[in-house]
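re: ur question from earlier - yeah i can do the single chain one, its not a big deal. heres the input i used so u can compare w yours
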Amino acid sequence: MNIKVEALGAFELLEDPLIVKGIQEIVAAYHVRNGKKWNDGSKGEIKMSPGELRDLLAFFATPVEASYEPEDLDLSNYVGGA
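and the output i got, formated as tokens:
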């Protein structure tokens, strides 16, 4: 398995607004706006250590209850722990 190839386009397929928002917040926290252009249309780089990446992946793999309900998300169908 080549995870870089397997993961291509996965973000666009997400439907859960909580996961989308979480990923967007993580990217924003590590985004360095240095103007470097990428072929996907984005600009800037992501800077983190391997340990930070492991912690973020583990965080996403750990089931947690939503501790807040952001105003911009419709959570009417959200079932915690499911």
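The beta strands are 31-37, 43-46. not sure if urs matches, ping me
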